[in-house]
Design brief:
The complex is a heterodimer of chains A (about 190) and B (about 180). Chain A has about 190 residues and is an alpha+beta fold. Chain A is built from 3 helices and 10 strands; from the N terminus they run H-E-E-H-E-E-E-E-E-E-E-H-E. In chain B, strands 1-2-8-4-5 form a 5-stranded antiparallel β-sheet, covered by helices on one side. Chain B has a 4-stranded mixed β-sheet with strand order 7-6-3-9, covered by helices on one side. Classes of the chains: A alpha+beta (about 190), B alpha+beta (about 180). At the A-B interface, helix 1, helix 2, strand 5 and strand 9 of A face helix 1, strand 4, strand 5 and strand 8 of B.
Amino acid sequence: MNFFNRNNYLISLTLFLISLFTGSYLAISNLKSSTEKRNLSIKNGNWIVNPKMDLKDDYQRAYIARIGLFALDDKEALYFLSSKDDKGRLLSSEYDYELIGLAPKGRYWSYTLYGDDYFLVKNKVNKFGINKENFNPKHNIIISSTEQKNNWLPSGNEKQFHITLRLYNPSEKVYKNLESIKLPIIRRLEK
Amino acid sequence: MKKGLTYLLFVGLTTFFSYNLTIKYLPNFIYGVFHYKMKNDHNINDNELKFYNLPNDKSKVVVMPNPDFLYVVSFYDLRNGPLNLTGKMPDSTYWSISFYKSNTINWYVKNDKEFKDNHLNIVLSKSTVDLDLNSSTIIKSPDEKGVILIRILIEKKDEESIKFYKSIQKSISLKKIL
């Protein structure tokens, strides 16, 4: 009976609200690492790919909704994402990068840069990606904030950015070898 | 002492449930925010199509848009009957139709190669409704509400191509079946 007096009620209400907030905060801040820990992403070098986009696992679904809302089922497209270069350093427009190697075979592929907020990177020439059609196979892709002659992917002015390789209708070989299929190396160019 | 333990248990349990509920319902929440934005900022009601231009750095509606795609989006609501999605689609580039539940699960996707021809004619109905329409592909939605997303790929971004694919995009329509 004593427990329900006014003071106890106020303490309970305050603790309830704090706990609600703490639970939600922990959930959102742990989402990415939890997903990785639970092996819901497949790692291939510094790239990660999320197969089974329709997975019933709540963590996977929440993770995808946060960074790839309305992404396609993996039967249709694969999304490889990287935020680091080949030495594990975060990608930043303070540096230039070279993508060494080709994208795996698929009906359509493209590279797109996203800022830390996962929206397209602002740049002077309004170029946001390189795809199968406008890629010059004689040269590697250069990610840089300054204009390049060939296969330039502008990195604008982003403290940190992410690169996505989309692969639509990839071959069976890609699905079977997600951990080992050869993906481009992201190498930082020394200035 | 007893009181302190009660509070501690109370805090632990509430945090635990709050953590798990956030993970479970975050997709529905994000979907809800998107739905609200579409309705209020873009004046798009349910069962209406929104035709988007090629995404750029100002496109802030959905994270990670593909800058090579023209998107068509609609929030469908089948409570007042089935919907008919029609259009003359391109025959020279990738395009696809996908449907999502309100918890963001992609429950249906079909691309241009999987359709018989480039004449799109889909009837979307509730799973409990039986329809007999010979000329259309009937798709039964697991839920009454969800999202339709159409993607049309533009690999070459010259003015002529963009104009051509935009005219195709605008040919798509969504109507209630009376």
